[in-house]
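Could someone model magnesium ion with this protein?
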Amino acid sequence: MYSSKNAGKDSFTFFESSMRDTLNRQSSIEAELKGSLERNEFHVVYQPKYEICSNTIIGFEALIRWNNTKFTDSNPDEFIPILEQMGLINDVGMFVLDNALSMIKKWQDITQRPLQMAVNISPIQFNDPSLFQQIQQILAKYNLTGHSLEIEITEGILLDATKELKSTLNDMRKASIAIALDDFGTGYSSLSYIKDYPINSIKIDRSFIEEMNKNKTHTALVNAMVSLAHSLDFHVTAEGIECDAQLAYLKELKCDIAQGYFLSRPITADKVTELL
Ligand code: C2E
Ligand code: MG
Ligand code: MG
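Reply:
Sure, complex below.
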């Protein structure tokens, strides 16, 4: 039933035993996620972001990890939607933000450079009218201004955007918090509606980068995304760079920021401190 509902109106689905396995796994994960924040099962790792022209680290993306003894293999793509359904994403999101901002303050102090922290914000978090206020409180706690923070949202959120969402995004921009559109190109990207929101940058989805040097259509699409974004005054980040050739090509295209395993995998806070 859920599979048909997800496929849209007037559709039907044949039952497969793998569906029962997925549902069973989801409900077991749900049981394990209850109380996981209080049991300190989450930690945050950081993936460096490089300015391509200078080859220097300009910031990091905070990515959550779950250390659960039963589900050692569960990744955020699997457990974040379950946290969202369970109504726990607001608290977990604030945990990530608090950790990430405390670390960026420390790394700014060490390097004396204006490093920026990018944090993924779930669309569900925008339903909380106090989201902006909570972000401001954490920024103030670490004596930071909005310049130190970039929030990453996905395009889907802009599709059925409410007045409240638009006003929260505007409040964030007024407070100098940067706003990036994550996984760009995979959803419903229409640069015309994007222009109605206070977006600063786009992150080209890694599926395009992966195919770039093999598939001419993808190369043309990346090329077009970079030049369109630049003509709208957005910065462009490429995610998922896994080899030298991809980075070299993105440099030629004048893409601004690079992120990917070729440059660095997400690493623990201690490792970042050593690296700096
Ligand atoms: P995302 O925000 O698009 O993050 C990028 C994902 O790509 C991360 O996966 C990262 O580890 C992975 N990645 C980075 N470079 C490469 C590469 O070169 N090759 C490949 N194959 N992968 C690369 P991760 O950490 O598993 O996170 C998956 C998704 O889960 C994120 O996608 C984001 O949507 C969500 N997520 C992660 N942490 C949080 C969080 O704290 N809050 C929320 N709301 N969502 C989060
Ligand atoms: Mg992201
Ligand atoms: Mg992404």
